[in-house]
Amino acid sequence: MEAALRQAYEAFGETQAERGVDLGAVEERLRAQRVETPSWGYGNSGTRFAVFPQPGVPRNPFEKLQDAAQVHAHTGICPSVALHIPWDRVEDYRELADYAASLGLRLGAINPNLFQDEEYRLGSVCNPDPAVRRRATDHLLECVEIAGEVKSRVLSLWLADGTNYPGQDSFVERRGRMLECLSEVYGRMPEDMRLLLEYKLFEPAFYHTDLCDWGTALTMCQKLGERALVLVDLGHHAQGVNVEHIVSLLLDEGRLGGFHFNNRKYADDDLIVGSVNPFELFLIYVELLEAEENPGVRIEYMIDQAHNIEPKIEAMILSVMNLQEAYAKALLVDREALREARRSGDVLSAHRVLLDAYSADVRPLCAKLREDLGGSADPVAAFRASGYLERVAEERREGRPAGWG
Ligand code: PSV
Ligand code: MN
Ligand code: MN
What is the DSSP string of 311-327? Predict the structure, then answer.
C-alpha cells in the first residue's frame, strides 16, 4: 500500500475504533460485496434522439465480457455479467460461459427482450392476441433454457407492456394474460432458478403500464410462487418516492430479489450510481444491511446503466466505487445507538446517528479493500494508465460495434 494511503487508512481506523466500530467485521462484509454489471452497459447506447458512438466499443458478447473483466480486475467485486437476449445471442452459450470463466467471470442474470419486435406493438405477455403471447412466452422459455446452459440461476424480467389511450384495453384482462404466460414460464423453471420481476413507472407506454410499481409486481409474484421476487430499479420511480421505504417493505415480505442500481435526475435511469443521490443510496443500504444477515435472504445486486456521453468502462468502475462507499458508510452506522434513540423517541439523535456514519470519509477503507481483493486503490486512474481502451480501440476498428438491437 502506498504510504499516503496507509496513513489515511490508519487514521480512519483510529477514528472508527474511538466510535467503537469493529473494523475487522466491517471489512469482512465489504470484502463479500458483489455487484453484477450488464453486458448492455458496454455497447453503444443513447436515447431516442441520438446515439453517440465511442471508440473501442465491443462488437460482440465476447468482447463485452473482456470489458467487464476490466471492471472486475480494478474493483475486485464484479465477477458476474448479466446477458440480454437477443442482444447477446450466440450460437454456443457454453462457449460464452467458458470464455467468461477464462476471464475470471461468470454469466449472471438472463434478461429477455420483449419490447423490440413489431409484434409487440400492443404488448407482449399482455397482448390481446394469443399468438403474440405465445411468441413472448416462447422467448421467455428460451431464456430459461439459456440460463440453464450457462448455469445462471436468475431470469430477470422487465416488461414494456402498457397502453397509450384510455379504453385501449382492459387492465384486468391484461393482468390475467400476464399471469397465465408467466405461470407457464415459472412452472418450467428449474427448482433453484428465481424469477425477478422489475417494475417501472412509465415508458414506453404513455397511458398505463402493466407493471408500474412495487404493488403490481409484488402481487404478481405472490400469485406466481415463492421463487418469484420483485426487482427494484432505482430509476423507475416517480420523483419524491421513498425508495428505501419500498425496500424495507419488500424485505419484510420476503420478496426483494434484486436491484438495478443507476441514477437519474428526471425520468431516465442510466446515470452513474450515486452521482445525483448519494444519500438515498446510503439509506437504501442501511435498510438492506440487517436483512442481509438473515440466511434466507439473497439479493442480486446489479448495475443497470447504458452510458450516453461518458466513457463506458470508467463510468461502470465509478458506479462500483460509489456502491462500495455507500455500503461501507451503512456498515458504520451505530445500530445500537440508533435503536436506543428510537426507543426513547429522540428524533434528532436517531437522525444524527445516520449522519454520523454518512459523513465518514470511507475512501481510504475502500481503496485498501480493493487492493486486498487484487484490484486497484484508484481504479479509474489505474484503468486509464493501463492503456486498455487505446489498445481495444485499435483492435476493434473494423466491424460493427454492439448496441441496442
Ligand atoms: C428499461 O427501463 C430498462 O432500463 C429496464 O430497467 C431493464 O432492466 C433494462 O432496460 C434492460 O432490459
Ligand atoms: Mn433495470
Ligand atoms: Mn430502466
Answer: -HHHHHHHHHHHHHHHH
Q: Give residue 404's pLDDT band: very low, low, confident or very high (50, 70, 90).
A: low
CA distance 267 to 237: 8
Which of 260, 270, 273 for a ligand 1 pocket mutation test, highest count of atoms within 8 Å of Cβ?
Answer: 260
User: Dihedral of CA 259/388/312/158: which sign?
Assistant: negative
C-alpha cell at 361: 470519509
Ligand nearest to the CA of 259: 2
- Is the pLDDT confidence value at 405 over 80? no
Looking at residue 123, its pLDDT comes to: 98
Domains of the chain: 33-332 (3.20.20.150)
88 lines ligand 1 (CB under 6 A): no
Nearest CA residue ID for atom 3, ligand 1: 158
Cβ of 233 closer than 6 Å to ligand 1, yes or no, is yes
> Which ligand places an atom closest to the C-alpha of 304?
2
Contact assessment for residue 160 and residue 120, using Cβ atoms and an 8 Å cutoff: yes
* Beta carbon of 133 within 6 Å of any ligand 1 atom: no
Angle between helices 335-343 and 347-358 (to 10 degrees): 160
Residue with cell 443521490: 277
Helix (H, G, I), strand (E, B) or coil at 145: helix
Q: 186-238: per-residue pLDDT in tens?
A: 999 999 999 999 999 999 999 999 999 999 999 999 999 999 999 999 999 99
Check pocket membership of 314 for ligand 1, CB cut-off 6 A: no
At 296, give phi and psi (nearest 5°).
-75, -10
Look at ligand 1, atom 1, and give the residue with the nearest C-alpha.
158
Ligand 1 lined by 270 (C-beta under 6 Å): no
Element (H, E) at 377: none
The helix/strand/coil state of 191 is coil
